[in-house]
Write a structure and sequence with these properties.
RPN1_N, four-stranded mixed β-sheet, 26S proteasome regulatory subunit RPN1, elongated, repeat, about 850 residues, mainly alpha, single chain, 42 helices
């Protein structure tokens, strides 16, 4: 009851309302049944018409609360009748303010008249949906039937969808494990918000809910004929039949839309056999080089740059007479080779090697340096197969083995990311697999094939390379690189033949061979087969336990981190951090698996902002308390987590690590700085690297790494990104991840590989290189300049109304460059975009409703 003080505070109206309600309760107690119905009607009217502020309980509910027990007794005492059902409905509403946790609202609701729950207001419906979730969980645990709950939930869902509470509708169906019923309730007004919420939840859900969400959202998009959105989700699901079905259905609806989908698939390097030559050209990425050169002209960066333009040595403050004389010139030339290749990648011309006197530069390098120098032509000619092969032809007949080997690797590089109907890479490289004159040529052929056909899942490449994996008479180097190339070609394919062959080989090889540095690449080849496939790797992980060699633990970690790459799975991240806890004695036990576990934290947390932020905090702890092997891997993991995304705090952290006493940590940190800034031309980072160049001017290895990072920073003169996420950071490119990971694994033994004879491992980055442009095309696939707004992307999930998707925008005319966290939108209504994301190649169609403004 209200205290006398509270009664004094009540206004006259409230007092009148209170007395009226108490009178109605008294009426219900009386035996005269005729009075019950009008009393119930009045109660209902008073409860429904009451208004209250957001923070207080509605007055009728507040005044009736003391009488709740009385009303329940009245309910129990009445015989079964319409009035009893009516009272149950009212009790259901009153129960909201009474004891929590008893689920009375739901109990009386199920006994009541079953009127539309929405008529009692939004708060009641939300309260009811919470109780439905709790009751369902209770019934599932006790194996009780729950059909009545489902019926009620399906009455509530349409109410939520009508009243802008899409998230509540999705959550309710998720709790009842019935998300597949959602498409029946969604219409053209609500689908966009529902799907946006569902897709953004995927990273936070555990299997199998995450897949169910993607499939349901896909169904909704297909129902609304939103094909580009549907295809994006089919790609995330990795379901090729679904992709094909969407692709064909779009073709029946609209030929231009099918071309737009082909561009999305080409970016993800998904090959679909198709009759139409024009669409096949799009899927083969044939247009890439033409538009990339056009972009360079537009941005005025076509002019080739020399390494010195990048180093800007005159800005390094080294005292005169102390010039970098202590660094051997071959090492500097080698660094310049890589810088030249990365900076001029894809432009088809440079000032060192593709000139008439290019041979002279190749001979300025020693042995394996010649190999990397010849291979760099492949990177400069990237995506332009015809011109590239013409340029390389003369080197294939060189008398120098190293140059020939480099030319073979270059053939692989030129063909990366593009396909050609004549298949030149396979024709030229396959003959050198068996009949190679030297081991270098054979290795470059294997690596070249892996790059050229990355992600293509070609059976003929498998048949060519598998025998090299299983032949135990070959060196571990050849077998491991063949396994790695197969991993690249069949990334995320779970191919059974390759899996069993690699596992078999690991069992048959001697312990001494498995101990070699190359063993990790055989493991990586196996791991890449399961990229992003989650549970599919369980059997392989069990088999690895049977191999009694430290390598099996390393490979198990690699397989696990690859299979959960980009999923943001919290439990797996915890597993990896747990592995880093052990303090091992390096002489007795192998601790390399800890380095892979550190990379795993970054690999799993990628693509989800909150997870990435938490991972960066964990790395800070690992750097303080970890063993040397862990500390060396931390900068690499940061590089992977923030590839081509130069966040200021990350740059500061890496800058600190790059001055560490442990040179391995410093070298890895310097390389990570290059990865983080790759292709961004970030001025602050360029300044940091110049300072490092003068700081390390007497340390040849560190200086070499600084130069490489300067090359990466200005990759493609600032037009190329290596971040594996694209399409508004929704899709992860498997070959992009594979290339990055391979390069980083090579850095776990930097002295032997990158700083030794195998510096060409840096070229593995090529599979993740792609221009960060937005090019708008007309219906004939010709460039069509339009104005677009480019700004920082804003997360608008669950926001009311029509919030802005970008902030702080500038208006440009296409083609434009987009940074990692930027998004573009059309600034004109004259055209309609066929893609839901403005990124890469976007086809535009004239807007039939567009009215040109009349100019005075």
């Amino acid at each position: 009851m209200l205290s006398p003080v509270e009664l004094d505070v009540l206004s006259e109206e409230d007092l009148q309302l209170k007395n009226e309600l108490e009178l109605l309760v008294e009426r219900l107690k009386e035996n005269n049944v005729d009075l019950h119905r009008p009393a119930l009607e009045s109660l209902r009217t008073l409860i429904r018409t009451s208004t209250s502020s957001m923070t207080s309980v509605p007055k009728p509910l507040k005044f009736l609360r003391p009488h709740y027990a009385t009303v329940t007794e009245i309910y129990e005492s009445w015989p079964e009748s319409d009035n009893k059902l009516f009272l149950a409905d009212i009790l259901s509403v009153l129960a909201m303010t009474y004891e929590e946790g008893k689920r009375d609202s739901l109990k009386y609701r199920l006994k009541g008249l079953r009127e539309d729950p929405g008529s009692w207001g939004h708060e009641y419906v939300r309260h009811l949906s919470t109780e439905i979730g709790q009751e369902y969980e209770y019934r599932q645990e006790n194996e009780l039937p729950s059909e009545d709950l489902m019926t009620l939930a399906l009455e509530i869902v349409p109410f939520f969808l009508k009243h802008n509470a899409e998230a509540d509708a999705v959550d309710l169906l998720l709790e009842l494990e019935a998300i597949e019923k959602l498409p029946d309730f969604v219409d053209k007004d609500t689908y966009a918000r529902v799907c946006l919420y569902m897709v953004s939840c995927v990273n936070l859900l555990v299997p199998p809910d995450d897949v169910a969400f993607l499939r349901t959202a896909h169904t909704i998009y297909r129902k609304e004929n939103k094909f580009t959105e549907a295809v994006s989700l089919a790609i995330r699901l990795g379901d090729y039949d679904l992709i094909r079905e969407d692709f064909d259905a779009a073709g029946e609806l609209d030929e231009l839309l099918q071309k737009q989908i082909a561009f999305i698939l080409a970016r993800q390097q998904i090959a679909l056999p198709i009759e139409d030559d024009k669409i096949q050209d799009i899927l083969n990425n044939t247009h890439l080089t033409k538009h990339f050169i056009a972009l360079a002209k537009e941005l005025d960066v076509l002019e080739p740059k020399t390494p010195e333009d990048i180093y800007k040595s005159h800005l390094e403050n080294i005292r005169p007479g102390f010039s970098s004389g202590s660094v051997d010139s071959a090492r500097q030339n080698l660094a310049s080779t890589f810088v030249n290749a990365f900076v001029n990648a894809g432009f088809g011309n440079d000032k060192l090697i593709s000139i008439d006197d290019g041979n002279a530069w190749i001979y300025k390098n020693k042995d394996n340096g010649m190999l990397s120098a010849a291979a760099s032509i492949g990177l400069i000619m990237l995506w332009d197969v015809d011109a590239g092969l013409a340029q390389l032809d003369k080197y294939l007949y060189s008398t120098e083995d190293y140059i020939k080997a480099g030319a073979l690797l270059a053939i692989g590089l030129v063909n990366t990311g593009v396909r050609n109907e004549n298949d030149p890479a396979f024709a030229l490289l396959s003959e050198h697999i068996e009949g190679a004159a030297s081991s270098n040529m054979r290795i470059c052929t294997i690596v070249g094939l892996g790059m050229a056909y990355a992600g293509s899942k070609r059976a003929d490449v498998r048949d060519l390379l598998l025998p090299l994996v299983s032949d135990t008479t070959l060196t571990m180097e050849v077998a491991s690189l063949a396994a790695l190339s197969l991993g690249l070609v069949f990334a995320g394919d779970c191919n059974g033949d390759i899996t069993s062959t690699i596992l078999q080989t690991m069992m048959e090889r001697d312990d001494s061979q498995l101990k070699e540095t190359w063993g990790r690449f055989m493991g990586l080849g196996l791991a890449l087969l399961y990229l992003g496939k989650q549970d599919a790797a369980e059997v392989t992980l069990e088999t690895l336990k049977a191999i009694e060699h430290p390598l099996s633990k390393q490979v198990a970690v690699l397989v696990e981190i690859c299979s959960y790459a980009g999923t943001g799975n919290v439990l797996k991240v915890q597993n990896m951090l747990h592995l880093c806890n052990d303090h091992l004695d390096k002489d007795k036990e192998d601790d390399l698996y800890q380095a892979f576990a550190v990379l795993g934290v970054a690999l799993i947390a990628m693509g989800e902002d909150i997870g990435a932020e938490m991972a960066l905090r964990s790395f800070n702890h690992l750097m303080h308390y970890g063993e040397p092997v862990i500390r060396r891997a931390v900068p690499l993991a940061i590089g992977l987590l923030c590839a081509s995304n130069p966040l200021l705090n990350v740059l500061e952290t890496l800058s600190k690590y790059s001055h560490e006493n442990d040179t391995d940590v410093a070298i890895n940190a310097i390389f990570a700085m290059g990865l983080v800034g790759a292709g961004t031309n970030n001025a602050r980072l360029a300044q940091m690297l110049r300072q490092l160049a003068s700081y390390y001017h007497k340390e040849p290895n560190c200086l070499f790494m600084v130069r490489i990072s300067q090359g990466l920073l200005h990759m493609g003169k600032g037009t190329i990104s290596i971040n594996p996420y694209h399409s508004d950071r929704q899709l992860m490119s498997p070959v992009g991840i594979a290339g990055l990971l391979t390069t980083l694994i090579a850095f776990t033994d930097v002295k032997m590989l990158i700083l030794g004879r195998y510096h060409w491992f840096l070229y593995y980055l090529v599979t993740s290189m792609y221009p960060r442009f937005l090019i708008t095309l007309d219906e004939n696939l010709n460039s069509l300049p339009v104005t677009v707004r480019v700004g920082q992307a804003v997360d608008i999930v669950g926001q009311a109304g029509r919030p802005k998707t970008i902030t702080g925008f500038q208006t440009h005319s296409t083609p434009v460059l987009l940074a990692h966290s930027e998004r573009a939108e059309l600034a004109t209504e004259e055209y309609i975009s066929l893609s839901h994301v403005l990124e890469g190649f976007v086809l535009l169609r004239k807007n039939p409703d567009f009215m040109e403004e009349v100019k005075d």
